[in-house]
Design goal:
Elements (H helix, E strand, L loop, with lengths): L19 E2 L2 E10 L2 E6 L2 E7 L19 E8 L6 E7 L5 E7 L5 E8 L3 E7 L9 H12 L2 E7 L8 H15 L3 E4 L8 H8 L3 E5 L6 H8 L25 E4 L5 E4 L24 H4 L16 H7 L5 H19 L10
Parallel strand pairs: 4-6, 9-10, 9-12, 10-11, 12-14
Antiparallel strand pairs: 1-2, 2-3, 2-5, 3-4, 5-6, 7-8, 13-14
The structure holds guanosine-5'-triphosphate, magnesium ion and zinc ion.
Length: 346
Amino acid sequence: MQLHRRGPRRCAIGAQDEKSTAGHHTGIVIRSTGGQCLVQMDGETWRCKVRGRLKKGPRESQTIAVVGDRVRFQALDASSEPPSGVIEEVLPRENKISRLAARRSGGQVEQVLMANLDQVVAVQSLREPAPQKSFVDRLMVAAERFGVSGILVLNKVDLVPAGPEMEAEEKIWNYFRDLGYTVIWASAETEQGCEDFHDLLTDRISLLIGASGVGKSTLLNVIQPGLRLRVNEVTEKTGLGKHTTTRTELFPLRDGGFIADSPGIRGFDPWDMDPLQVREYFPDFQEPGLECHYRTCLHRDEPRCGVKAAVVRGLIPTRRHGAYLALLSDLEERKAQVGYRSSGKL
Ligand SMILES: Nc1nc2c(ncn2[C@@H]2O[C@H](COP(=O)(O)OP(=O)(O)OP(=O)(O)O)[C@@H](O)[C@H]2O)c(=O)[nH]1
Ligand SMILES: [Mg+2]
Ligand SMILES: [Zn+2]
């Protein structure tokens, strides 16, 4: 595999971040539930509460400290098992991946899935369950928007017979490779592609994301058997996963780097994205877009549109343009709704 195509390493975690002065420490959140976090420092895991005052004031986000956040904490009991502390401060984020979550009480709220990451890995299975429509397009848009490298892993290739069926899959997904995203064809069953997957994660901080049952945890168990993550078969009747992984958790990798496994998600609505900007996050629209008659063209109903012409000529797949249009109208609808607040902050 061409490792030089990997994105730059943006976020450093390690010794240089883990400072301790007079009872104050700096570590990285590896798990976050409610007001409690597990924080890793010098290879040791601390159980930390979030200081009450951090919870006060207006907040756009559901959680104060998320997986990947660097936090400053004070030791409460360093000799307990595990040692305990209180988080005093969440350090400024280098980046994040956020989506829109529905509030039970109505309205919309930001859900930060992870902070301070180098790459987001969209995992799809080719069969059982079948790929989610537009999921990869949306995740790559979010990667562009939040300044993170986007990677695509197509798992369960063992379930697709060689020949026309496989060729059809290659045609769909290698389009993303041609756009510059790294694409890995994998099978946790036969271990095809798993070495490439391992190399891609080494020395990077990554988030795995995809529907339930696509094999995220199984793939991680293959590249690092010591993790022993829980996995579960896909329900025969519905062909869907069983939501086996229930929370995002960050694990150190044996050969360097960190990987976050996450619970299966159904869809992905990127947070904080202006409908007028979304076209900028489709790299394949840039060149044909120069031919649009109107500079403000949204490549939808406008006459003399270069992007639509490229679709007609077969240069941009109809599926891809459809994913763009669906995202555009979702974002417009959201903007029109009350209760949506875009912070623009990290
Ligand atoms: N045939 C085949 N089955 C696989 C492969 N990878 C995973 N599976 C199976 O798919 C099922 C789901 O795998 P999980 O690893 O639990 O899926 P997950 O994405 O972690 O699911 P959630 O934790 O629910 O989000 C398990 O029965 C795995 O054995 C593969 O490459 N080929
Ligand atoms: Mg899982
Ligand atoms: Zn246009």
